[in-house]
Amino acid sequence: MGLGSTRDVTLARAREKAAAARALVAEGLNPMEAREQQRAIPTFGQAADALIADMEPSWRNPKHVAQWKMTLTEYAGPIRSKSVDAVSTDDVLRLLRPIWQAKPETAARVRGRVEAVLDAARAQGHRSGENPARWRGHLDKLLPPRKVLARGHHAAMPYADVPAFVARLRDNPTISNRALEFTILTAGRSGEIMGATWPEIDVAKRLWSIPAERMKGSRPHQVPLTDRMIEILEEMRERGGIFIFPGAKPDKPLSVMALTMAMRRADAGQFTPHGFRSAFRDWCGDETEFPRDVAEAALAHALRDATEAAYRRATALEKRRALMIAWNAYVAAEPASNVIPLRASQNA
């Protein structure tokens, strides 16, 4: 049985390996078989990467994939090189304690994802015994309750401020600024915009068709394209690549933080990209007479009323086209026209 080359293994280390091998022989075990078995067990990092690769096809949102990768690389970094069968409760606690109270939501995600990796490893025969990242009946006895954070809506810029903000974006034509403007104009979710590809665009019909697998509600969605949206698309097409808004590499989309960073650079870091959907909805309700179901359809919201949902599918597309034209005109600070029927004054 080889113990390693003299170039890689010191004499003292070779003696340690020999002693360990003799101890296995004394117990009636084959040290060479034990070594091969140990080599077959992946590290925690390998197990984490394998789990993400296996689960990624079922995750519709690329942001979700990126979050798992970041969590299991950055926060679980100290145990990535450790054999997955050797990860202990102490290891998990060392990951969680520094962030348990300071970043309670992040800590909860770290714990849950580490637990998932270790559960998968056990199912594959790489571990045995209890999961050291399990919460109920285990870590809940070792860690204090997390701080409960008040949950609110995404911070939304008031719709009255959106035209001036978009004007600032247009003055600095970066890819992230164009993507953020497109997000605002379409009232879409950031994941829908970042994952958008050219086959989804039909300029002749002036439609962006998002397949069900990329939508939050697993239903296909169509967005009517306005003149300004098409201008942005034509500008992006010149850059080439698979994605409409490419990242550093043409075959990769923008990162999950691109839109947030664009807002920070534009001195709007107190708001979120998702909040523009709220601004759009507030504008619809406060400034126009477009029906509620048309506004909800533009946001790809599901309607509980079956009759209303059927009506929306049958008639809403062209009404939504008029709505998006009106919204884009408002965002561009164009003069009001009969496309935006304002509500009558209560004092009239």
Automatic annotation (TrEMBL):
Which Pfam family, any one of them, does this sequence belong to?
Phage_int_M
State the CDD domains in the record: INT_P4_C
> Sorted alphabetically, which InterPro entries does this protein's record hold?
CB (IPR044068), DNA_brk_join_enz (IPR011010), Integrase-like_cat_sf (IPR013762), Integrase_catalytic (IPR002104), Integrase_DNA-bd_sf (IPR038488), Integrase_DNA_bind_dom (IPR025166), Integrase_recombinase_N (IPR010998), Phage_int_M (IPR053876)
Keyword line = DNA integration, DNA recombination, DNA-binding
According to the entry, every stretch annotated as the Tyr recombinase domain falls at 152-324
Residues forming the Core-binding (CB) domain are: 42-122
Q: Does the keyword Zinc apply?
A: no
Q: Which family does it belong to?
A: Belongs to the 'phage' integrase family.
| Protein's UniProt name | Prophage integrase IntA
Species source reads Methylobacterium iners
Q: Corresponding gene?
A: intA_3
